[in-house]
Write a structure and sequence with these properties.
The strands form two sheets. The chain has a four-stranded antiparallel β-sheet with strand order 1-8-4-5, with no helix packed on it. A four-stranded antiparallel β-sheet has the order 2-3-7-6, with no helix packed on it. It contains no helices and eight strands. By secondary structure, the chain is an all-beta fold. The protein starts with a strand and ends in a 6-residue tail after the last strand. 0% of the residues lie in helices and 45% in strands.
């Protein structure tokens, strides 16, 4: 799995948070890591909520929209 990037503009607001759909094809057993882009253009790991719906859609939820990406932890196994 390659990086999945998203922008602030991609988020939608539900009743209590913002969320963005990141991919319908992310495997169920894959551990995902969410990184937020900093002002300096670097990425930092955050503990965002990952939501997997019954129809296998995957969302990142956070208190505010941000530019970021989702990566798999598979790179740690290399």
């Amino acid at each position: 799995m390659g990086n999945i990037t998203f922008r602030k503009e991609d988020f939608i607001k539900d009743d209590r948070r913002y969320k963005v759909e990141v991919d319908k094809g992310v495997g169920k057993g894959v551990d995902l890591i969410v990184e937020r882009e900093t002002e300096a253009g670097e990425y930092e790991v955050i503990q965002a909520e990952i939501i997997r719906s019954a129809d296998e859609r995957v969302f990142v939820a956070w208190s505010e929209p941000f530019n970021g990406r989702v990566v798999s932890d598979e790179y740690k196994k290399l």
